Amino acid sequence: MPKIAKELSALAVSRLTQPGLHSVGRVAGLALQVTPAGARSWILRTMVGSKRREIGLGAYPAVTLADACRKAQETRDAIANGTDPVMARKVAASRLRAAQASEITFQEAAKRFIEAKADEWSNPKHRLQWTATLEQYAYPVLGKIYVRHIGREHVLQVLEPIWAAKTETASRLRGRIANVLDWARASDFREGDNPAEWRGNLDQLLANPSKVKAVRNHPALPIADMGGFMVTLRAINTGAARCLEFAILTAARSGEARGATWSEIDMDRGVWAVPANRMKAKKEHRVPLSAAAVAMLKALPRYEGVDLVFPAPRGGMMSDMTLLAVMRRMDLEAVPHGFRSSFRDWAGEYTNFPRELAEVALAHVKGDASEAAYWRGDVLERRRKLMNAWATFIAKPLQKGAVIPMHRAA
Fold this sequence. Notes:
- The protein is an alpha+beta fold.
- It has 3 domains: 10-101, 2-Layer Sandwich (Double Stranded RNA Binding Domain), CATH 3.30.160; 106-212, Tyrosine recombinase, N-terminal domain (DNA polymerase, domain 1); 223-393, hpI Integrase, Chain A (Orthogonal Bundle).
- 47% of the residues lie in helices and 9% in strands.
- The chain contains 17 helices and 7 strands.
- Strands 1-2-3-4 form a 4-stranded antiparallel β-sheet, with helices on one face.
- Helix 4 (106-117) packs antiparallel against helix 5, helix 10 (239-250) runs antiparallel to helix 12 and helix 15 (355-361) crosses helix 16 (369-377).
- The longest helix has 20 residues, at 167-186.
- This is Site-specific integrase.
- Keywords: DNA integration, DNA recombination, DNA-binding.
- GO terms for molecular function: DNA binding.
- Belongs to the 'phage' integrase family.
């Protein structure tokens, strides 16, 4: 049994400034430790089983003499009941760290999910779309909530404000939230049902997206307006305007035109070979360039060490928004992708070229046997005639009241 020292009063304890351990009585083994620097703290020196322990009870004077005595007695009672206070603290700290490691916020979960799945997405734009949508709509509500605690009510807080006004965006957002929460469940960060699931869950609380608002196709410019538009576009002296012009002349997707490189273009043969890794169908697409497209390319500046045909002003590839901005400044509702629809409508309604030829020109996935034959042969020169007819048609505005001429396939 340890000897209990003479009891010191609170005033006497306050006067202890000599470095070392000073027993204060009241509880066996309780002492005030004073460091050479003058810091003071409470220590309980005792045996725990066969081990001698020095157990800290807090700093003085934040922990008063009375508090130190109470803590010391509680610690000695716990030891008498078979508890090792030092080990108990370590176990509690370990459990706390484990609990903290098992908690993750929605924002962190989303970032980790996107990182894990990014390699599966064929188009780098998908990662940007995921991030932008979640940052704009989901993170303000869900971002700092642990995924373990996210319920249906939280998901509805995100979706309800935009469900009617931005139905397509909201529907995609719901799917993305559901994917993140599924990843969190598979990673043992949450349990139970997914509150963002549609069937048997949100479908009972939100209107069916197809009934709220019909899905709109990409707004396209009327065929009769194409000539006037091209005159205005060609008067704009910017790289973005030339990129948009090239996309229209080739009926290419925006990303294909923005990513075009000089090494893909054979100016002598008038062919642009878009590699498979930049095509939606993952198949090389050879584009026969019209005379207008070749003339436009020859007039473009070339920059040493830059292979991109249409580099952004600060380097790298232009964003899709850059082309859209050109059209917005012209006060048009149409979007760059809509010109592919304009081309398809023109080819189908105002020319005698076979439908399959236009489908191959648009690099659509091959369908029936007759269309597959066009893919196998690539029919490059027949397609060149189609593209030259298109370039001629859009070269100048139609006169008011004029009938759109019918182009015959040669």
